[in-house]
């Protein structure tokens, strides 16, 4: 389950609540594209902004409509207590795996993060992917801590934040982390602009934001890399440079893919929880022009 | 209300819930010490870790036991929707003012933060203090944005994160911000190690962590500065240097004051929500020795 293309859909919502019909539409697109797994309630799925009840509903809807494709559910929360509740509910709803980031308000220490993963894996019956995202959690994993957590039972993958741009440096970085972790634990790259480089450098998975909204585009890169065609994967990714530039200029991928889904009519506008705003004005026009030029849909 | 010593108590809790008896004890100590205001559900009050219902209960208990001392309630949340609900509940429970930090998971842009404060102040009937805490919110205010937000109705104070150590530089920093904001908006310093310098530099308030657990100590510094006795305020603060060093070495003040309250028997141990841990081992021994040497109680 923690290999190939894991597509992370938005959780479209407004101030009234989750837009369930739009969410199901997004899931159905991923099923039609035949992605390798569906990662709901990642950062792209705005897990941190939803109530416990809304999160349980997202997992249930995804499982109901995902067919044979495994659903991985984000269970991150500020409190260990809430993480344990979310893990239980995700399992009850039929999630095949869970994804856990050490979300923080007070910056966490390594022993606190280890304690969180220890308590969670103790309680789990499905496998877990460690979600390393310093940009949103404020927590920076060392490779040593990754190694300690990866040896806990149920840990099956690590979602890492990007890799160096240089192919040799990327391979070295993946290799260094690989030395610290058991061989059954896969590595998955995130930061879509780095995905081709990460897959070419030996990551077994791509935890993908654009996979949630442009699944065919993300699959083409993934399949090229999996077939050993590193050059083609790189070329397909470099073609998307204007999209990566939009991510860079708009605080990351979330606001851009939200606007992309709005522009495609897949979700209503706005689809992000306030105070977050998707692109407007010139940024939105630039995105529309980019989507047309790159034939993204 | 947004002047003098505003004392920020812990919200003692365990995995089962809030320890209401211990919380009331902390409030009663602040009333006995006669602090100028009580700031519940600040970062020290672990607002981000509590449910909406628990937060309403904290405000109600504080108001019930605070007597004539005004209660300021933290209403920060990731979603504007939740901030508005918390504002309504805090007002209904009798809070005299509210405190709002632009809490984030996705880093926020300035226009998103402005939108949050605009929506909130539109709905408020009590005054609001802007809570500027980049260490926990990941958002850095510019003075220009402070000026724009301070001109919104209901904004009455800004809780700023420390000031430069040098008295002249501190005065210049406070002066620059003061130029941007209306004269009815007060400035309050936080970061306890900087409090004497901030008060001496012209801040009207100290939003104080140690005020919540050592109120007499914090009041002595505040009253000296308010009386124009800058040297005495500085001397009283410098005496606490071993405490400021403990804050520096333990990721800030929260884990230290939690352990201090545990050591005094004011709260049960542990009193922080997992995965957070208060001090243990050598750190805890060092705190106990510091409290004894400085006669803190």
UniProtKB/TrEMBL annotation, chains A, B:
User: Which Gene3D superfamilies is this protein grouped with?
Assistant: Aldolase class I
Is this entry keyworded Lyase? yes
Q: Which UniProt keywords apply?
A: Lyase
Record Pfam families:
DHDPS (PF00701)
**Which residue stretches, if any, does this entry annotate as coiled coil?**
none
- Identify the SUPFAM superfamilies for this entry: Aldolase
Q: Does the keyword Lyase apply?
A: yes
Superkingdom of origin: Bacteria
- PANTHER family with a match to the protein in the record: 4-HYDROXY-2-OXOGLUTARATE ALDOLASE, MITOCHONDRIAL, DIHYDRODIPICOLINATE SYNTHASE
What's the family? Belongs to the DapA family.
Q: What is this protein called?
A: Dihydrodipicolinate synthase family protein
Lineage, top ranks: Bacteria, Pseudomonadati, Pseudomonadota, Gammaproteobacteria, Oceanospirillales
């Amino acid at each position: 389950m923690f290999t190939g293309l894991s597509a992370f859909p938005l959780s479209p919502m407004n101030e009234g609540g989750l837009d369930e019909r739009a969410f199901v539409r997004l899931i159905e697109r991923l099923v039609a594209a035949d992605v390798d797994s569906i990662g709901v309630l990642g950062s792209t799925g705005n897990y941190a902004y939803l109530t416990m009840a809304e999160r349980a509903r997202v997992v249930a809807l995804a499982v109901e409509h995902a067919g044979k494709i495994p659903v991985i559910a984000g269970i991150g929360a500020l409190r260990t207590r809430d993480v344990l509740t979310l893990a239980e509910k995700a399992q009850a709803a039929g999630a095949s795996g869970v994804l856990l980031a050490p979300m923080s308000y007070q910056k966490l220490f390594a022993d606190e993060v280890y304690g969180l993963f220890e308590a969670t894996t103790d309680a789990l019956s499905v496998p877990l992917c460690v979600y390393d995202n310093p940009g949103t959690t404020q927590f920076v994993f060392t490779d040593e801590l990754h190694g300690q957590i990866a040896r806990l039972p149920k840990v099956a993958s690590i979602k890492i934040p990007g890799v160096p741009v240089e192919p040799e440096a990327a391979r070295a970085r993946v290799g260094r982390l690989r030395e610290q972790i058991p061989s059954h634990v896969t590595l998955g790259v995130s930061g879509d602009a780095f995905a081709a480089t990460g897959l070419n450098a030996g990551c077994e998975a791509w935890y993908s934001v654009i996979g949630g909204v442009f699944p065919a585009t993300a699959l083409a890169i993934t399949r090229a890399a999996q077939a050993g065609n590193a050059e083609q994967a790189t070329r397909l990714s470099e073609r998307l440079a204007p999209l990566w530039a939009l991510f860079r200029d708009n605080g990351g991928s979330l606001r851009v893919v939200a606007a992309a889904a709005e522009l495609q009519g897949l979700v209503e506008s706005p689809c992000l929880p306030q105070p977050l705003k998707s692109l407007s004005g010139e940024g939105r026009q630039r995105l529309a022009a980019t989507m047309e030029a790159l034939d993204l849909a």
